[in-house]
Amino acid sequence: MVKAVEQVSYQTGNFLLIGNGYHNEQKERQAIEQLIRHRCAALVVHAKMIPDAELIHLMKQMPGMVIINRIIPGFEKRCVALDDRYGAWLATRHLIQQGHTRIGYLCSNHPISDAEDRLQGYYDALRENGLPCNDRLVAYGEPDESGGEQAMDRTARSAGGIFTAVASYNDSMAAGAMGVLNDNGI
Questions:
Q1: Which of 48, 64, 131, 173 is disulfide-compatible with 126, CB 3.0–4.6 A?
Q2: Residue 6 sits in which domain range?
Q3: 101 C-beta neighbours (distance < 10 Å), count
Q4: Residue, of 15 and 176, whose pLDDT is higher
């Protein structure tokens, strides 16, 4: 997504500045404040930890502020979000349609709605297809490649090799998991 925003920025004669808060409320706030201090005309904000009330205050001050991956009541037209539960349901259902019946899941350990919604989508697909929800097949980790490696390693040990497929919170975790599986000849 950053690449697409960058392309549009350059096409319109603007510059792109990026600040990252990594799901930490204080770091998210600092990143937004830094961009405002640089007098950015517009902000595309992915802030999962800052309270709605604070984002509402900022959005009232900055007409060019858009929130991604979250819906702020009263500002729905300036928010872009995905149906994370449905997306995870689709991914898990695809694995089931391929014949898998023991599907692991690598989940983000961040206390954010995305992680909860995606995990519920995974469980929904299992239940709808008459498959058991086995907690030994679910592992939590940081939503990055290293977290995917660690979660995959834990899943492989705790599940005793009983899984036939693995769904993941995001591509980064999946890449880490693939490395572990490849290293173990799976």
A1: 131
A2: 2-80
A3: 14
A4: 176
Strand order in the sheet with 65-68: 43-45, 65-68, 79-80
CA–CA distance, 124 with 118 (Å, rounded to integer): 10
Structure tokens at 165: 């497929």
**DSSP letter (8 states) at residue 74:** T
Task: Let me know whether 97 and 19 are in one domain.
Answer: no
Indicate the residue type of 9.
S
106 secondary structure, DSSP code: E
Choose the final residue of a domain: 33, 63, 80: 80
Residue 8: phi and psi, rounded to 5, are -65, -40
Mean pLDDT of 99-128: 96
Q: How many CB atoms lie within 10 A of CB 124?
A: 17
On the 0-12 / 13-18 / 19+ scale of CB atoms within 10 A, 125 is buried
**Both 88 and 179 in a single domain?**
yes
With residue 66 as reference, give the H or E element that holds it: strand 65-68
Q: Two tokens at 10?
A: 């350059």
Q: Based on the domain organization, do 70 and 140 belong to the same domain?
A: no
Q: What is the pLDDT of residues 54-111, one digit of tens each?
A: 999 999 999 999 999 899 999 999 999 999 999 999 999 999 999 999 999 999 999 8
Phi, psi of 74 (to 5 degrees): 90, -15
pTM over 0.70: yes
> Are 47 and 70 contacting, i.e. CB atoms less than 8 angstroms apart?
yes
